Amino acid sequence: MAWQGPRTLPEPFAIILVPNDIAPLLFWMASLDIPSIDFSKQPDAKDVSTAMANLGFLFIKNADIPSQDLVRDMFALSKEFFEGESLDEKQKVSVTVQNRGWIGNRQEALDTGEHPKGDLKE
User: Fold this and answer.
1) Burial classification of residue 102, based on how many CB atoms lie within 10 Å of its CB (0-12 exposed, 13-18 middle, 19 or more buried)
2) I want to staple 63 with a disulfide (CB 3.0 to 4.6 A). Which of 12, 39, 107, 116 is the partner?
């Protein structure tokens, strides 16, 4: 069979080179059914909420968002939350059984050897 030129790859398509130690994690992540939500029209808030509550991830398609502005705004909101909100306000969004939400300093001990009293959340 004669060479017929390069094949067309579906859009979007990316080739990512990863270290061997995280390859199993990426294969596991690829097996997940990550929701894809179209932002070219007003998305259904329930779809976004469900995706984030159940999996913590979603693909956003056709979003007309100025990315640098969005990143700056998200960092500003995060800084405002962590530096400015009271403990009572933070506890309103405390961690759920799905392991999502805010956890205060020394509230969980992931490394009981070095931090037996709980992590400092550095």
Assistant:
1) middle
2) 39
Q: In Å, what is the CA distance from 99 to each residue of 9, 93, 102, 107, 108?
A: 37, 11, 9, 13, 12
Tokens of 81: 């939350």
pTM, full prediction: 0.36
Q: How far apart are CA 44 and CA 36, in angstroms?
A: 12
Task: Say whether the peptide bond before residue 43 is cis (omega within 30 degrees of 0).
Answer: no
Domain residue limits, the chain: 20-91
Q: What's the length of the chain?
A: 122
Query: What is the tens place of the pLDDT at every residue in 43-52?
Result: 888 998 888 8
CA distance 35 to 47: 8
DSSP state of 101: S
Cβ pair 60, 40 in contact under 8 A: no
CA-based end-to-end distance of the chain = 59
